[in-house]
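Quick sanity check, diguanylate cyclase:
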Amino acid sequence: MIAGVIYFCMASIALLSSRFEGGLAFIWAANALLMAELQTSKTSYWPRVILACGVASMISTALFGMGPLAALPMALINIAESLIVATLCRRFIPVHLADGSKRSLLVFIAALCVPANIIAGLGAALVAATLTRVDFGASWLQWYSGHVLGGLTCTPILAMLLQGQVSRWVKETPKKKKLEALGLLAIFALVTAHVFFLARYPMLFLLLLPLVAISFRVGSLGAAASVMVLAVIGGAATVAGYGPLNMVSGSIGERTQLFQVFLAFSFLLSMPLAAELNGRRRLFQMLQASEARYRAIAEHSGDVVLNVSVDGIIEYASPSAAEQIGCAPGSLIGRPAEILVDPEDRAEVIRAHRRALAQPGDVQTVEFRPSITADGLDWCEMVTRAMLDEQGLPIGVVSTVRDMSRHKARQRALQRVAAVDTLTGADSRWAFLEKLEQEIQRVARGAQACLLLIDIDHFKSVNDRFGHGVGDKVLSGFVERLRPGLRGGDSIGRLGGEEFAILLTGTDIQRASMVCERLRKMVSAQRISAQASDTITVTFSAGLVELDGKSGRAELLEAADKALYRAKHSGRNCLRLAA
């Protein structure tokens, strides 16, 4: 009901004051109320406010406009205009028009000026041309200029009012800022009154300075308010025959349309400027909050935080640098970041820095040994990400450096544990295979080596007769008896169960065969005690293959395994060479 009453009053005033040629009103702001209501309310509220404003439009048109015959079609056209604008804004604006962003403003202007009033203007011009003496083209121009201007001038401030921005501004703005805003608006109102009522010369340019000043100092709310002040004072003066536009020859309708053009340009100057400033102000606030969080984290973090320029110069170092790397933060600023890195690792750290700059969205992680070491610090991890300017271009990186010496130590200890078979002391399967892979590469460069695959004969019967405890003793004793027959560069590994492998380096297959025979005799010559007075004689079968630098690890193991299989089927306790 309130929306309907206000709409009726706004429509009636427009019809009574601006139907200069007996057709459509030259000035129309009533639809701005309906557009603001639709844009700031839930869609469930739409039918009620549309009905109220539609009835108000019909009554005002019947009483003060083109009469009862035009009441229903004009009401439908007014509603159609408002619905087109509201629907498009709801579709393409993330929040609502009252947020004051550039995107919201541009979408609103485009929706109002292009589809809404071009389409609605055609319907209104058809009705006016049918019921009045004004022709179709003039009627369309009257509708378009009046409705676009009314929408541009009043919708933003009404949307802000309905969304509660005006009340929030009153509550949250400091008194000094309020007085400044009111003072600027008062000055603007006085200048506007002087230009339109008192000035003897056309001085519209005087309005630009206070208009821009209000946009800068007060923002979107102030810009919208200043445009409304200009519309009210300037519009009243122009309609009454005062102001610089009345110096232009033509009808009062034409002068009113000329004023509307000036008002539209004033809107397009102040509102986008205020929206841009509003966005920059929000961005600045976000940057301040982000900077405060960053400083709090950097100042109290155990990790070293560095800001490094594009060319690798340290611009900031957190206080933890003194404790972590033994350097005062101030002594690092202005120096190349690479001085913190051991010369052997600098190339990798520099590559990570360049990758961070080339791929701003990605995080780069690199491990390095420090060149400047505090107590116990021998390995560091650096996590780097690019910092961007407002154009999205990298201006440097922020890096966190943390001590990972303990992690590296644990990693090395685990590797040592994983590299040794806990029962026999031989290399574990993966450690032996890694050595085999390295030896294959050495042979490809001209070295010599052989792979001996060994399987203890009848080991299952040992477990079945004496138990797994004795079996484990046999396995560990077996490796102990093999070691004296190996040279310094040779390696023995347990591949699984009772299967072992020996890597004989720097030898060809003939000498490797002799080594195998010697090992076989050494093992069988020494019996292993089992239970009480029982002893066990251990023998093994073996398959031997020479590394050729071309075959891969799997191929060599398969060839040695086939030779071992032939040894087992040849009576065991013997060696067979790979085919």
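Posting the structure with no commentary besides this: The two ends are 102 Å apart (CA to CA).
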